[in-house]
């Protein structure tokens, strides 16, 4: 290998796979997923002999899983988005 080839390899800039907007959308998607898991938490009982109906409320059964799925959709969109299109 010539010296000029080595210099050209060293001068090459690191090329990122995604643009800045893709990373922003990806972070938003991860935050939405985390929010969904936070909404899903709780509802347990301190006493194992007492049943708590709160585990079956709307927030844990409908809202939290929907939020997680929306977050996954946002992250998939961030991965597939091509920012170079005009």
Explain this structure.
There is one protein chain. With about 90 residues, the protein is mainly α. It is about 60% helix and about 0% strand. It is built from 3 helices and no strands. The chain has helices at about 5-10, 20-40, 60-80. Helix 2 (about 20-40) runs antiparallel to helix 3 (about 60-80). The mean pLDDT is about 85.
Keywords summarizing the entry:
single chain, 86 residues, mainly alpha
Global shape:
elongated
Q: What structural category do the secondary elements indicate? A: mainly alpha
Poorly predicted sequence stretches spanning 5 or more consecutive residues: none
Count the E strands. 0
- For the record, give the distance between the C-alpha atoms at the N and C termini, rounded to a whole number: 40 Å
Q: How large a portion of the residues is in β-strands, by DSSP E?
A: under 5%
How does the major sheet shape up? none
User: Quick check: average pLDDT?
Assistant: 86
Helix percent reads 55-70%
> What's the order of the H and E elements?
HHH
Radius of gyration: 23 Å
Report the total helices.
3
Secondary structure topology:
Layout: H1 3-11, H2 20-40, H3 58-80
Question: Quick gist of this model?
Answer:
The protein is mainly α and about 90 residues long. It is built from three helices and no strands.
């Amino acid at each position: 290998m010539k010296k000029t080839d080595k210099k050209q390899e060293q001068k090459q800039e690191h090329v990122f796979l995604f643009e800045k907007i893709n990373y922003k959308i990806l972070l938003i998607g991860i935050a939405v997923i985390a929010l969904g898991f936070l909404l899903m938490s709780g509802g347990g009982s301190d006493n194992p002999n007492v049943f708590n109906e709160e585990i079956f409320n709307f927030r844990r059964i409908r809202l939290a899983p929907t939020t997680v799925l929306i977050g996954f959709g946002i992250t998939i969109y961030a991965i597939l988005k091509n920012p170079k299109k005009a």
